[in-house]
Amino acid sequence: MAFPHRLDAPELPDFSMLKRLARDQLIYLLEQLPGKKDLFIEADLMSPLDRIANVSILKQHEVDKLYKVENKPAVSSSEQLCFLVRPRIKNMRYVASLVNADKLAGRTRKYKVIFSPQKFHACEMVLEEEGVYGDVSCDEWAFSLLPLDVDLLSMELPEFFRDYFLEGDQRWINTVAQALHLLSTLYGPFPNCYGIGRCAKMSYELWRTLEEEEDGETKGRRPEIGHIFLLDRDVDFVTALCSQVVYEGLVDDTFRIKCGSVDFGPEVTSSDRSLKVLLNAEDKVFNEIRNEHFSNVFGFLSQKARNLQAQYDRRRGMDIKQMKNFVSQELKGLKQEHRLLSVHIGACESIMKKKTKQDFQELIKTEHALLEGFNIRESTSYIEEHIDRQVSPIESLRLMCLLSITENGLIPKDYRSLKTQYLQSYGPEHLLTFSNLRRAGLLTEQAPGDTLTAVESKVSKLVTDKAAGKITDAFSSLAKRSNFRAISKKLNLIPRVDGEYDLKVPRDMAYVFSGAYVPLSCRVIEQVLERRSWQGLDEVLRLLNCSELAFTDMTKEDKASSESLRLILVVFLGGCTFSEISALRFLGREKGKREQKVGCGGQGAVLRKAPRLAPAPLAGLAVGGIAG
Amino acid sequence: MDCYTANWNPLGDSAFYRKYELYSMDWDLKEELRDCLVAAAPYGGPIALLRNPWRKEKAASIRPVLEIYSASGLPLASLLWKSGPVVSLGWSAEEELLCVQEDGGVLVYGLHGDFRRHFSMGNEVLQNRVLDARIFHTEFGSGVAILTGAHRFTLSANVSDLKLRRMPEVPGLQGAPTCWTALCQDRVAHILLAVGPDLYLLDQSACSAVTPFGLAPGVSSFLQMAVSFTYRHLALFTDTGYIWMGTASLKEKLCEFNCNIRAPPKQMVWCSRPRSKERAVVVAWERRLMVVGDAPESIQYKQLTIQVLLDRLVLRRLPLAIQICEYLRLPEVQGVSRILAHWACYKVQQKDVSDEDVARAINQKLGDTPGVSYSDIAARAYGCGRTELAIKLLEYEPRSGEQVPLLLKMKRSKLALSKAIESGDTDLVFTVLLHLKNELNRGDFFMTLRNQPMALSLYRQFCKHQELETLKDLYNQDDNHQELGSFHIRASYAAEERIEGRVAALQTAADAFYKAKNEFAAKATEDQMRLLRLQRRLEDELGGRFLDLSLHDTVTTLILGGHNKRAEQLARDFRIPDKRLWWLKLTALADLEDWEELEKFSKSKKSPIGYLPFVEICMKQHNKYEAKKYASRVGPEQKVKALLLVGDVAQAADVAIEHRNEAELSLVLSHCTGATDGATADKIQRARTQAQKK
């Protein structure tokens, strides 16, 4: 298809090592509790765990029964209970309630809590407050990086975005630093480091401290990865707010890709069962279409189907010997391909049904108008109608946020009326959602009378003031302006198109948004890598409110081979979208480089997770949506 | 001429020896050594002398004097002994001088005569007094063994971790044993003692009689015993003039030697020559010295690693120690850094130098040498009671996390908090927070948090899950009415089941929002209260479920239930905008498939949302007949779309041609798929050609 695999593409490091490491460590931890035991697993650790150690491995190490950690009393009869959980306070209360119930019943068992990826003091504190600290042994499973694909790692920390960008809670920064440290121990030091954003800077500094403390471990190792780029999600909210139109992104938007796999329902499988499909480079059909603009995908798949048919048809003229050969050597592969093909064709049809309707076209049109900054009134009315008609709670919020960020906040009248409409449509509990979105800087009101320069001088004062360096993002975001329009102009994010943009032969990263917009995050990465520094990007940094928060670090002695120098690791702190991954893959092929990405908190776009609207206003910000 | 052998003298028949002075002692002793208590530290360490130890009965002017010299006799310290009578002196492996008093008290001094601490060997020792004492060395450290006036043994195997053990009684023991020694076997300390012809081994639980393997008969008393430094070997001197040498377990004999001297020796010690690997015992009488040797043994330096050696050197000769490290090519962390750190720890004990000078001197010498822990040095300073110096030293500690534990110990919690935040380690911050919480009153604690947003966020997160009331207090203290409002809204969902309780919580929230000057949120909350009350009334009057529906869904539910009047009333009360109401009714009536009511509604007034939505919704319900009714009413701009929706391609084409709109023409053309649309397609093409001609 459009991106032939370049022959000179550099070899990717062997990331499966991370899996083996995690598995060995888990087994070691399980063996620390010899004998039969029941394992309680936190729901959102199940998929990551499954990628590391399947049930039979667990059974081999004397795990008897498996339970999900949920708000129900456990019925386990085992003498040893092991809990595999995220370091969350509610989990501690769950463990404590179990232990205390046993105590009441006069029962003694062994309890072990394994925290992943690390334990927090606050958790132990809760165990202590609940009076069970002495009964429970605690351990850490330092499983912080899950290889989802040959070129994609994820920390699978859905709360990262909320904790850091909304609550200003910095506890995951240490986890990021540890993960970077692990990568540099396994794959050699990174000769070139770049970063932008406060979280990126703090993670980087903490990581450097770790490296210095364990001096010499990575010294002298040949670097396998030439560059590392750390980027805070709040540097670019816009991209995460746009509807995705590359195939993998659409599959994510439509069916949700979780931990590298997707559940296709009956509407895709055309049977009464749903099917769990692993989406990665090993799926040959998927691998060829994942980065394609959706408009090309169906054509490709039908061509593929015809080719497949032709290969089957070759049987007709075969003699016995040829037939035997065909059956033993080719048939299995063909059948496999056939199966994958029909899955993706099914998914395509289902997406088409949902997305090619007029509604979707209108939505995309509005998004493009917002990105380009014309017909703002018309777009605002469109959003209002969208809310009134209860089209989709999450999409409405996404559009509102996109309007806010591209326009430096909503004008007061719209800010009030859109919120009022939204509350009428979806319930008053979303007052909390709006309060959270405002704090995160996603949905704000234009400050009346604040001229651009006045705000800017305020912000720059905040930034240069040393004490203000400690102000958490949650607060400083209130003072920030997004300046999207100016940034867009400066970085040329809206390509000038003469005639039709040929989506079959993309000429720049804008193809991931139908040629209408180059993802800001990817453009920044591209620019910095081209310059090998932030030089000449001062104005962009000022507009991004990151003048003090961008850094470059090059090692003087360049021991890296030219091969490894072409490998780039991009770390999105707060999650990334499949569109960005596709854009970076495109960039890699264009420049003959390859990128890996690490997404903190998986790669779901901001505001893109399935909305949970029921009576759960406690979840606050976009009701569990803004996880990213 | 070859003179190498000139100073060798014959020894017996087949051996030669030579004697030469390594160095002369620099000291200037007035007393004979025999009149002093003497202790030389192992590994060529310092020498301690206690002069006049036994002259306690005389005038106070002649008190004992404790002097410490280097191994070459350079005076290091001298002090008047003012405590009780001393029975025994000895050096620990850490080069601390242990002075065992008659009352069982042990005073500990440093190399420079600085008093460190003291401990007691227990009540039993105090009552029965100390008859004899030995300081011995084990792999755990240095121990003290005491023989009391009641002929019982008490020992501690490690004076840095004092655990007193009273050894069992030796059956039939009337007087003091003729000789005894402490042994260390299998990591346990024992006592070996000789009573007449018998040898006993004491361990914690039992006293057992032992016999040396292969000992010549006729022994009626053991006069002296010596254990080798490694506790592997033992030498016994008998009243028959025999020297038995063997393993400390007494189960193996190395050799036996008859020296034909029956007088008890003054001293007997093991000595070894590491290079020749020979083992030997030196026996000394008043005017005679004898070396008895046999099989090879090598000195074990296990207890004395190079690091310990350097530590000991540093107190005397800093530059030499550093040179040794460089010579030995020790890694910096093990060598030079260690030396400097050790030197610094010594430096902070110089009480006559000001805090500033000490801190500066240390920093100048140490700089940022890798492996040097300023926090360790600071801890030492704090141990010497120099808190201010400790804080100054901590400033040089590059890892802020390392500063925190000591700062907490010194009760500088606020400073500890800043340092913890700097370190980026949130767990450390949390630890300090818990300290602060216990240490300060609530008001001060909150004020401290207020100035540290990072810590505040962390604590808030904790409170959100574990201490909701504290969270409220935090917001209150900050006058953060916005967050207080949100807090009460959450509370209205979480805690309260009854509608009155929920409304009350919402009222509190609304009040908070007013205080926060957030009128929008206040009004929205008041609307919510109104809606809740109304929903409760609807449930009572109409049945069904209304609570917690959105306003939109409440109205929809009413329409679906056929309560149109109520729906109208609600829409008016809550000022639902016209557009929304039209969308809402349209959707609800179509869901009901109440086409008659829909038509009536469509004619009630001019639709604010146009008529295309009517067409769309009818088609969605597959009612083409109804859809067509509305298609005719759709405005010209959307007419083509409407006609295409109801499948009237031909008419759509006519309208598009009439509009002369290229986009509309293409749209219609793309719908010309059916077999009957051929003519229409041609018509459009013709119109296009014509348009181009014009």
TrEMBL record, chain A:
Keyword annotations for this protein, in alphabetical order, are: Protein transport, Transport
Gene3D superfamilies (UniProt xref): 1.25.40.850, 3.40.50.1910, 3.40.50.2060, Syntaxin Binding Protein 1, Chain A, domain 2
Can the keyword Protein transport be found in this entry's annotation? yes
**Membrane-protein topology:** Peripheral membrane protein
Classify the main location: cytoplasm
Query: Which compartments does it reside in?
Result: Cytoplasmic vesicle, Clathrin-coated vesicle; Late endosome membrane; Lysosome membrane
The record's annotation in InterPro entries points to: Sec-1-like_dom1 (IPR043154), Sec-1-like_dom3a (IPR043127), Sec1-like (IPR001619), Sec1-like_dom2 (IPR027482), Sec1-like_sf (IPR036045), VPS33_dom3b (IPR043155)
Lineage, top-rank taxon, reads Eukaryota
* Similarity annotation: Belongs to the STXBP/unc-18/SEC1 family.
* Name of this protein: VPS33B late endosome and lysosome associated
Lineage of the source organism?
Eukaryota, Metazoa, Chordata, Craniata, Vertebrata
Automatic annotation (TrEMBL), chain B:
Pfam families per the UniProt record, alphabetical: Vps16_C, Vps16_N
What range(s) does the Vps16 N-terminal domain occupy?
A: 4-302
Q: Which Gene3D superfamilies match?
A: Vps16, C-terminal region
Domain Vps16 C-terminal stretches: 372-689
Q: Which domain of life is it from?
A: Eukaryota
Sorted alphabetically, which InterPro entries does this protein's record hold?
A: VPS16, Vps16_C, Vps16_C_sf, Vps16_N
What family name appears in the similarity comment?
A: Belongs to the VPS16 family.
User: What is the name attached to this protein's record?
Assistant: Vacuolar protein sorting-associated protein 16 homolog
Q: What would be the name of the gene that encodes this protein?
A: VPS16
